[in-house]
Every structure is written in C-alpha cells, then in structure tokens.
Predict the 3D structure of the following.
Amino acid sequence: MTNTIHLYRAVLRSALRFPSRNKLAIVDEIKQEFRAHKTLTDDAEIAHRLNIARDGLDRLNAFSNMDKKSSNWQVSLKGPHTGEG
C-alpha cells in the first residue's frame, strides 16, 4: 500500500510539471484512475495496474524534464514497465 501511495504522489508531481496546457485535466484523470481501482483485490490485476502507473510515470518524466525553451527536444523511453528491477 505504501508503495502505491508513493507512486501515486510521484505520478501527480510529474503530471503537474508536464509541459501542456491540459495538465490539470491530466492530473484529474490520474486521480480518477487511481480511485477507480483502489478496491482491487486480485494481486495480478493490482500488479498490472501498478506497472501501467510506473510506465506512465516514466513517460511523464521523459517529457516533464525537457527544456521548454529549446528547439532540440529528444525523448528516450525505457519501454513498458515489466515489474522487474
């Protein structure tokens, strides 16, 4: 549970730094998604949803840390989170 809370907060922080005019809508969508799945009890489904959230965090971080004033943007994504490492 604690890891889920830390992941939730990390995703929200990164979404707030996301370079988009729609970032508040993105934050609301993230909150809704986490709330919609808070009563899950199936361990496999929980692990799957956490992997989706970690993958989303990786993608948000890739875009959130870019220099918005630069015209030379490069994004490197690790790929889907597999639950390993």
Notes: The chain has a mean pLDDT of 81. Residues 2-64 form one domain. The first helix runs from residue 2 to 17.
